């Protein structure tokens, strides 16, 4: 069950009290004021939110729940105001053998997040390293603080990124910058990440990255769900498909939206100079 809270900054505390009788959850689930945004907060602060397998399992469960819940229209994923995530759990990985990671498809479950249909807004403060940077890149829109720290430091551990840090990163920032980050472990700040196109917005002095992400998610939650889902699918098509096929997907989705009530409502409301009321049909 999600908790509903009256202010954004109070979101996690009542939930913690509610959960105090059982094991501490590795992902806290709460809701925005309007109840239409699910806020998922990674909750391993002592390990800087290192992404252990149990944490990722819980994250996948919460993402699936939010995706299936009709009252949720957008999702915020965050590590809170201190750290997003310092990577996959090195202590869990250190003694693993090739045969096990290969047979069990280690990290394979991380890609489940890319099948979530609702928009996911990532809110990054502090460290987003290795798997943390890769998890951030699995979000649809990223916000961060100016001094957030993004890096793919796997090379310093004798490995390479294994959850998108060579692929998504290259799409986002280009080959030279991706090579620089992957081959040297170079850290970039939130400001640089915005200049490089890794994130879309950087918070201003005194702003809460989580609150800003929730505001953005609520703005998206205010639009019709069919068009929102189609927009996400079409933009993701740009990463997966050659241009001609991507353009065909976009045109097909665009044309299909003329079969929706929301298209009639949106254009009708514009003509009648009133606010549209979306029905998600
Ligand atoms: N895995 C497991 N534990 C981690 C961790 C990680 N990725 N990152 C931090 N921690 C733990 C530390 O072990 C420490 O725990 P203990 O107190 O029990 O020793 C706690 O979090 C606090 O960390 P530090 O004492 O190191 O804090 P710091 O402020 O001195 O340094 C840091 C912070 C620079 C982020 C440093 O912790 C660090 O370098 N972490 C590892 C970053 C990294 O290499 N990430 C990539 C992992 S590999 C990966 O992600 C592969 C992939 O593609 C999916």
UniProtKB/TrEMBL annotation:
Gene Ontology BP term (one):
fatty acid beta-oxidation
What Pfam families does this protein's entry cite?
A: ECH_1
| Enzyme class, UniProt record, top EC level | lyase
EC numbers, comma separated: 4.2.1.17
Q: GO cellular component annotations, sorted alphabetically?
A: mitochondrion
Keyword annotations of the record: Fatty acid metabolism, Lipid metabolism, Lyase
For this protein, the record's InterPro entries field holds: ClpP/crotonase-like_dom_sf (IPR029045), Enoyl-CoA_hyd/isom_CS (IPR018376), Enoyl-CoA_hydra/iso (IPR001753), Enoyl-CoA_hydra_C (IPR014748)
- Write out the GO MF terms: enoyl-CoA hydratase activity
Q: Which family does it belong to?
A: Belongs to the enoyl-CoA hydratase/isomerase family.
Name of this protein: Probable enoyl-CoA hydratase, mitochondrial
